[in-house]
Write a structure and sequence with these properties.
Structural class: alpha+beta
Number of strands: 6
Strand content: 15-25%
Largest sheet: 4 strands, antiparallel
Order of helices and strands: EEHEEEEHH
Oligomer: single chain
Length: 118
């Protein structure tokens, strides 16, 4: 039986989720490399650091001499992380985004009227 979830999306509206964070949680992050100078030298290999262009989350990988990821860590912006019980499902997040962009979709003729009316 699937576990019951309490959700941060109530009545179809986002509650407490920043728009950029909602997009990242739904679509995945928009990573771009950057070069931090405050993390120190890795014990082996080289560091690949990525920052999300939307929510500013950071991912730091240590890559070994044959290209494998030796370690990975994330640094999330404040309020990004949620407990399991307060994390909405991906479907709930998609529906919330859909409500936010519905007018733009209709203007671009990218929405079925039957679905849009729901």
């Amino acid at each position: 039986m699937p576990r019951k979830r309490t959700t941060a999306i109530v009545g179809g509206d986002r509650v407490g989720i920043d728009q950029a964070m909602l997009r990242c949680r739904t679509y995945g992050h928009a990573w771009d490399e950057f070069y931090p100078d405050n993390l120190g030298t890795p014990m082996f290999g080289w560091r690949l650091s990525l920052r999300c262009a939307r929510c500013t989350a950071e991912r730091h990988d240590t890559i070994d001499h044959i290209g494998q990821v030796g370690s990975r860590r994330y640094i999330y912006p404040q309020d990004y992380q949620m407990t399991r019980d307060e994390t909405p499902t991906r479907e709930e997040m998609r529906l919330s985004l859909f409500r936010d962009v519905r007018e733009k979709l209709a203007a671009a003729n990218a929405i079925n009227d039957e679905i849009g009316a729901a």
